[in-house]
């Protein structure tokens, strides 16, 4: 049975991710939950727990409220997942903020700054005197 779980876990996690994205966008009316992206879902091997990674481009100060709103809606979301997915156990949902997009934007900004200030570059990005 362990071999079957290796292929089933990613499929279930992706199904949960897709359904949650739709449910949050269309059904969750909590004002604390604005535009949110589900970046990944990790499901435990026994399907009892799912860690849902979320991201937003909203003000970072609102992230705790966002997570609180999502956790408040977790019961509703879990019940709806039970109606939509054909799996025996619907996992408990835990929402976690995924900082990877924010880190990527910061890194891209730093790279742009470094490239823009690099000596020997003209406005076209070509080296002079090379």
TrEMBL record:
InterPro entries named among the record's database cross-references: KH_dom-like_a/b (IPR015946), RbfA (IPR000238), RbfA_dom_sf (IPR023799)
Major location category of this protein: cytoplasm
Coiled coil, from the record: none
Cellular compartments annotated: Cytoplasm
Keyword RNA-binding: no
Keyword field contains Cytoplasm: yes
Keywords associated with the record: Cytoplasm, Ribosome biogenesis
Family of this protein: Belongs to the RbfA family.
PANTHER family: RIBOSOME-BINDING FACTOR A, CHLOROPLASTIC-RELATED
HAMAP family: RbfA
Subunit structure of this chain's protein: Monomer. Binds 30S ribosomal subunits, but not 50S ribosomal subunits or 70S ribosomes.
Function summary: One of several proteins that assist in the late maturation steps of the functional core of the 30S ribosomal subunit. Associates with free 30S ribosomal subunits (but not with 30S subunits that are part of 70S ribosomes or polysomes). Required for efficient processing of 16S rRNA. May interact with the 5'-terminal helix region of 16S rRNA.
UniProt name for this protein: Ribosome-binding factor A
Species per Swiss-Prot/TrEMBL record: Tepidiphilus baoligensis
């Amino acid at each position: 049975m362990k071999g079957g779980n290796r292929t089933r876990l990613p499929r279930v996690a992706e199904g949960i991710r897709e359904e949650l994205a739709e449910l949050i966008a269309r059904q969750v009316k909590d004002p604390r939950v604005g535009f949110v992206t589900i970046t990944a879902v990790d499901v435990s091997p026994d399907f009892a727990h799912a860690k849902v990674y979320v991201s937003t481009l909203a003000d970072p100060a609102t992230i705790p409220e966002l997570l609180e709103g999502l956790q408040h809606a977790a019961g509703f979301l879990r019940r709806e997942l039970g109606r939509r997915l054909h799996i025996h156990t619907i996992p408990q949902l835990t929402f976690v903020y995924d900082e990877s997009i924010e880190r990527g934007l910061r890194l891209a900004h730093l790279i742009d700054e470094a490239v823009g200030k690099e000596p020997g570059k003209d406005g076209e990005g070509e080296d002079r005197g090379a």
